[in-house]
Amino acid sequence: MPTPDGPRLLVLKIGGSLFSDKRRDRHLDGAAVRHYARVAAALHRTAPGRVVLVSGGGSYGHGAVRDLDPADPFAALPLTGVNAELRWVWTEALREAGVPAFPVQFAATAVLGADGTPALCGEAVPRLLATGILPVLSGDCLPGHGGRLVVVGSDLVPGALIALAPRATRIVMLTDVDGVMDGPAVVPRLTPATAGSALGVLREAPRWDTTGSMVGKLKALLGHAGDGAECVILNGARAEAAAPFLLEPLSRWPEALPRTTVVADGVPA
Ligand SMILES: Nc1ncnc2c1ncn2[C@@H]1O[C@H](COP(=O)(O)OP(=O)(O)O)[C@@H](O)[C@H]1O
Ligand SMILES: [Mg+2]
Q1: Would the pLDDT of 97 be above 80?
Q2: CATH number corresponding to 10-262
Q3: Which of 2, 79, 80, 120 has the highest CB neighbour number within 10 Å of its CB?
Q4: 213 Cβ closer than 6 Å to some ligand 1 atom
Q5: What is the distance in A from the centroid of ligand 2 to the CA of 124?
Q6: 15 lines ligand 1 (CB under 6 A)
Q7: CA-CA distance, 35 to 49, in Å (whole number)?
Q8: pLDDT over 90 (residue 6)
Q9: Closest to 136 (Cα-Cα) out of 178, 97, 189, 188
Q10: pLDDT band at 2 (very low <50, low <70, confident <90, very high)
Q11: Lowest mean pLDDT: which of 95-104, 154-163, 237-246, 257-266?
Q12: pLDDT tens, residue by residue, 170-195
């Protein structure tokens, strides 16, 4: 849904490609983490209690689930360990940037529904927001039916947060490209009904990427849009340290700013 007064909840997902080299193991670009922590901190200061940070997995997350043994139902467990480290790195960087940030394990605050979709449960995240704390989430593995651990990538995490502000949630995914590219052009707007052709122009994910790169991201966002969120894919390099437009109605965003907006069918442009 469009948010004419700006979103009540902004979920900012920082793509792993912006702070980590996924081809390597446990690689982090500390300066990039500090930079994006300042971006998130500025947004939090503008709208305390209305911003959630979701970290991409980068080489930590993708490295942990690249070669899982299908015979071991608990094979994905190390993902929980490395993502805890990653959330802690963000939490410290956010504290350095002067905001009260708190790491939240996704599996401790969400469960998989019968259709495999994660849904938020419990009061932990709403309580953090209500008390002006910035929650820091990431992907995780969650117990499925039968006890097998199911990998939930970070692009899917924002979907569970929509319930906190139905029809008033904006999901901004910062990544290393300007949006969904059709050759040199950015596709400005997609809905579930118009996405078919766009999915056709997406290149296959490289071997080291376990969540389908842009294909996975777009599929996740189409689901989130169907659940009522206003979603934007934006180049992290264009999100300045104080990017207050991220909290403004889309109509007030810089016109020349390339991005792909993903919304439900029937939402007016
Ligand atoms: N048509 C496309 N438009 C944009 N990105 C694409 C396209 N096809 C493949 N990609 C790849 O998807 C990548 C972004 O997804 P990903 O690496 O998963 O980002 P993140 O780290 O933010 O999750 C781009 O860097 C690009 O290499
Ligand atoms: Mg990705």
Answers
A1: yes
A2: 3.40.1160.10
A3: 79
A4: yes
A5: 26
A6: yes
A7: 21
A8: no
A9: 97
A10: low
A11: 237-246
A12: 999 999 999 999 889 999 999 999 88
Ligand 1 and 260: CB distance under 6 A: no
The values of phi and psi at residue 162, to 5°, are: -60, -30
- Report the run of H or E that residue 101 belongs to, with start and end: strand 101-103
Cα 148 versus chain centre, distance: 24
3-state SS, residue 58: helix
Report pTM. 0.96
* Phi, psi torsion values for 253, nearest 5 degrees: -75, 150
Of the candidates 154, 151, 157, the one whose C-alpha atom is nearest the C-alpha of residue 74 is 151
174, burial (CB in 10 Å: exposed 0-12, middle 13-18, buried 19+): buried
Query: What's the Rg (C-alpha) of the chain?
Result: 17
Domain spans of the chain? 10-262
